[in-house]
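Example complex used in Figure S2.
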Amino acid sequence: MNPLIPHLLLAVLLFAVGLAGALARRNAILALVGIELMLNGANLSFVVFWRFGPNPDPQTGLMFCVVLDRRGGGRGGGGAGAGVAPVPAPADHRSGRRGFVEGLTPEAAWTLSLPGSG
Amino acid sequence: MSPVFYFLAALTLGGAIAAMSLRNPVHCVLCLVATFAGLAGIFLGLGAQFLGLAQVLVYVGAVAILVVFVLLLTRGGAGEDGPRGGRGWRSGVAVAGLVGSVLAVAVVSGPALGRRAEPPPLPSVRDTGLALMSDFVLPLQVVGVLLTAAMIGAAVLALRERAPGGAPGRRGGDRP
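Predicted assembly (294 residues):
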């Protein structure tokens, strides 16, 4: 059997599981985790096509992969640190608390937003 | 296919399914770490050494730990999801199953995938670096600009909380 097929099936299953989680989970952070899983499935398909595809220039596929991967890291950092930040805001706004999350100082938010964005 | 691939695939898929179906969000993120580690192993097995190590550094090291931090600091880990058999669960799983089955049928019945292609010789990490620095310099710079914009955006979002001249930790001025 072509070794492409089991790898691609694994990528498809990862994507489907991530899609199910992103659609079904009500917790915003876990929905982001589902999107992360979908990204990883796409990454796997890129690597597999780079490895087994008839593409004569193997570096291009790897380059796309690296771009996607780094973008995923930047999105995960910016997403987990900053993108999640507006999500709890409406729930806290009703009770008149601070917008981000109770007990999280701006310094902590700053620290959170740093590591993944580089 | 080697049994190592099947072991890693089972680890990856089991971690993903557990991460999306467990009730406790902290357990979900720990299963996510297992998924990322399995994927890194698969990348290494495919010969993409740089990408496998970047997967370990970026995903296992940074993203997963960051999500754990966000969960614990925002007390998002205290909130449990609703009942698993709810309408949102059923429709989400149905849509994902539909999409996944369509993609799987496309993969299995694709005419181009039946041919067995000769895998190209493996480039080393040195070749990757040389290609990045010669042929792919422009994409590399664009990625650098993108990451810089992301970092500036994160700094702006985090610093907006500080009131001008006020004590840190209090949001003032924008609320009457």
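Chain A touches chain B through 89 residues (CB under 8 Å). Confidence is low (pLDDT under 50) at residues 71-118 of chain A.
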